[in-house]
Fold:
Amino acid sequence: MEVKEKITGRRRFLKGGLYAVAAAVLAPVVYGFFDFFTYIRRDPRAPAIIEKSHLGAGRYEFVCGGRPAVLFRENGQVAAMSLECTHLGCIVKWSEKNKRYECPCHGGTFNESGEVLSDPPRLPLKRLKVEERDGNYIVGGE
Ligand code: FES
Structure:
């Protein structure tokens, strides 16, 4: 009787381990499957529509075609640019303290207009097309 309980307990343990291994192997496959279909839905060419009131006097960060971007004022005009670093594509963050965009990956920096301040990036942050229409800003799109 005791031996049978030990065997059952070991079997249960092995079965649990097998399920854990199967879950670990299948999780990336399932994630990739759903990520693929959500990628199709978030058309990278689709423009973002932003209510004018969101911008206010400062900067407004948003997602355009699944990618982070920022809307801001420059020389009295509304402009937008991607927040993907032009070095290897990490997402730059605005530093209020240093008044610049900083890349967490390799330390590249950009000024508030997206111009390179320090290496390794060589190109400025990518500008996005902005149109004003019906009280909104239409950003991006190709
Ligand atoms: S990806 Fe931004 S500095 Fe390398």
In short: The chain has a mean pLDDT of 84. Residues 85, 87-88, 90, 103, 105-106, 108, 120-121 surround FE2/S2 (inorganic) cluster (CB under 6 Å). The chain has two domains: 1-41, 48-139. DSSP finds two helices and eleven strands in the chain.
